[in-house]
């Protein structure tokens, strides 16, 4: 008999930040470590990571981190995690290549790290656990599910999969491995749920293939196609069609270029070397107006939209769009990019760019639909179903799928981040503990959690601006040298608010006189008193709360 605890440090009730843990007989197995992209109200935050302080405290019990695939929502937290915890990391060749590239970009040393590459046929034995893998169909190559075999049955981790039958071997689901797992007693299926409320099977879109072929056939000029850099499968689709029409390929996008290089080197993205074109910067002699070329504009989230806008405004260093170009947008808005996507479309139409917009319904999801989840469940016949990777509405959809497959409501287990559920002797024992979970906010410069105070200051700066009060004083003589210099940014226009500026000047002198009349002069107290007095006056006068920054320069020290 094994005691099995399962909990998530991220990925439940949210889109991204996937990080799941299994504690089996006091040994910890970590499944993925991803990031989540921020919403607009998190000013200046570039990524949200799971809080893995629990793992830090129990690092000696961690047997390994097992990565399912190379998307940021599954490996994006690894650079920070590996700075603090050095344990074995397992992943496919392509996933590990992307991870090492990310670590290099983040300047995380890899010397001494315990990286181990696996394939869908790998089997790894631990004390009371055997871990194996099965290939899944996803938008990135070498994506795998993970089977954790225990004395009480197999636990199957199935993130980000479909059963699309019209894919190349690199993306094809390994039904043989699934059948082998199904031949054993499957205790629980941890299935993704992001697309669980969509009916039918996910499959190749004939409408997409037709639209792309029509666009290529009609075009007699340079073509620009946008793709998300993580969607290697669709990049390959565009490449294949371009080659069919005897086109050269140019790929732009900093991170995408690295990812594409890795994919080509490992043979999971196939582009004939003679067809790859390296673009040089635009100058008087070189315009890059190549009619026989397809330019793939790739990046993450907002980047393809941003690059298109630069190209239309003719400030990009490689491509300047004009009316003769054909643009295909294969990057529908995703949460957080709706505004920039709308602005990009408006800019393209305003400049009479010939645009083919691929709607979201033409782009098959890379996540399991209701029928895909049913098929995975029917193949494995797990005793319990645990929905992961999604929001609560998606978990509800999985529960309805379970009912359709004659599962009792209690056997489809919905949990929250940090909630620990236990399996003993093949039975679900319910919630036994709660682990503290939270978000680590990263702004790309700092290596630590941004505090609520910093975020609040950024919010105030974005809405109410800042006022600096810069003054020269002589602390020894206890006197001011002259009137302070008052600077407003994002708050009020100085020339139109001279009365308000004069009032701030008067407040400064009043506070200075009060401070200099004290027996001992205190810089800190002077700044606090000045900040509070000016802030209160500005709010009473304008109903706004700019950040007030006093700067006192003591000339007596010179």
Structural features, described:
This protein is of the alpha/beta class and 558 residues long. Helices cover 31% and strands 25% of the residues. Strands 7-6-5-3-2-1-19-20 form an eight-stranded mixed beta sheet. Strand 9 and strand 10 form a beta hairpin. Helix 9 packs parallel to helix 10.
Task: Looking at this protein, list some descriptive labels.
25 strands; Ubiquitin-like (UB roll); single chain; 3 domains; about 25% strand; about 550 residues; Rossmann fold; Metallo-beta-lactamase, Chain A; 8-stranded mixed β-sheet; 15 helices; alpha/beta; 6-stranded mixed β-sheet
Summarize the structure.
With 558 residues, the protein is an alpha/beta fold. It has 15 helices and 25 strands. The strands form 5 sheets. An 8-stranded mixed beta sheet has the order 7-6-5-3-2-1-19-20. Strands 8-9-10-11-12-18 form a 6-stranded mixed beta sheet. Strands 14-15-13-16-17 form a 5-stranded parallel beta sheet.
């Amino acid at each position: 008999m094994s005691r099995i605890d399962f909990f998530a440090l991220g990925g439940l009730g949210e889109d991204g930040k996937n990080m799941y843990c299994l504690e089996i007989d006091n040994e910890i197995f970590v499944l993925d470590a991803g990031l989540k992209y921020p919403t607009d109200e998190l000013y200046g935050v570039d990524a949200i990571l799971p809080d893995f302080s629990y793992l830090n405290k129990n690092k000696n019990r961690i047997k390994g981190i097992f990565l399912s695939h190379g998307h940021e929502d599954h490996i994006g937290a690894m650079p920070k995690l590996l700075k603090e915890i050095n344990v074995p990391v397992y992943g496919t060749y392509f996933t590990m290549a992307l991870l090492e590239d990310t670590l290099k970009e983040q300047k995380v040393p890899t010397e001494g790290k315990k990286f181990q590459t696996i394939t869908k046929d790998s089997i790894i034995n631990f004390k009371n656990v055997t871990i194996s893998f099965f290939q899944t169909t996803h938008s990135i190559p070498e994506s795998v599910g993970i089977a954790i075999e225990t004395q009480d049955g197999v636990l199957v981790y199935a993130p980000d999969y479909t059963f699309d039958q019209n894919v190349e071997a690199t993306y094809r689901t390994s039904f043989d491995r699934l059948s082998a797992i199904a031949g054993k007693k499957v205790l629980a299926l941890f299935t993704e749920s992001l697309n669980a409320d969509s009916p039918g099977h996910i499959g190749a879109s004939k409408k997409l293939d037709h639209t792309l072929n029509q666009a290529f056939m009609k075009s007699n000029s340079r073509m620009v196609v946008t793709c998300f850099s993580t969607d290697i499968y669709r990049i390959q689709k565009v490449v294949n069609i371009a080659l069919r029409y005897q086109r050269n390929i140019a790929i732009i996008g900093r991170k995408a270029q690295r990812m594409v290089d890795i994919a080509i080197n490992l043979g999971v993205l196939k582009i004939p070397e003679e067809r790859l074109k390296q673009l040089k910067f635009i100058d008087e002699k070189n315009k890059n107006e190549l009619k026989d070329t397809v330019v793939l504009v790739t990046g993450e989230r907002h980047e393809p939209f941003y690059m298109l806008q630069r190209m239309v405004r003719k400030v990009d260093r490689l491509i300047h769009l004009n009316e003769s170009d054909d643009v295909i947008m294969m990057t529908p808005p995703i949460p957080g990019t709706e505004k920039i996507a709308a602005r990009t479309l408006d800019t393209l139409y305003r400049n009479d760019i010939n645009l083919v917009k691929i709607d979201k319904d033409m782009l098959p999801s890379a996540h399991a639909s209701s029928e895909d989840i049913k098929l995975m469940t029917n193949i494995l016949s797990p005793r319990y179903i645990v929905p992961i990777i999604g929001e609560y509405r998606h978990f509800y959809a999985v529960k309805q799928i379970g009912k359709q497959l004659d599962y009792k409501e209690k056997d489809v287990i919905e949990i929250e981040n940090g909630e620990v559920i236990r399996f003993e002797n093949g039975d679900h024992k319910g919630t036994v503990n709660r682990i503290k979970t939270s978000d680590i906010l990263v702004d790309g410069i700092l290596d630590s959690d941004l505090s609520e105070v910093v975020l609040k200051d950024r919010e105030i700066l974005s809405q109410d601006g800042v006022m600096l009060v810069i003054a020269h004083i002589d602390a020894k003589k206890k006197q001011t040298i002259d009137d302070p210099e008052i600077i407003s940014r994002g708050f009020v226009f100085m020339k139109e608010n001279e009365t308000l500026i004069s009032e701030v000047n008067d407040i400064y002198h009043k506070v200075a006189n009060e401070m200099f009349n004290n027996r001992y002069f205190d810089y800190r107290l002077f700044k606090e008193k000045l900040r509070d007095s000016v802030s209160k006056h500005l709010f009473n006068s304008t109903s706004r709360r700019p950040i007030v920054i006093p700067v006192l320069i003591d000339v007596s020290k010179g």
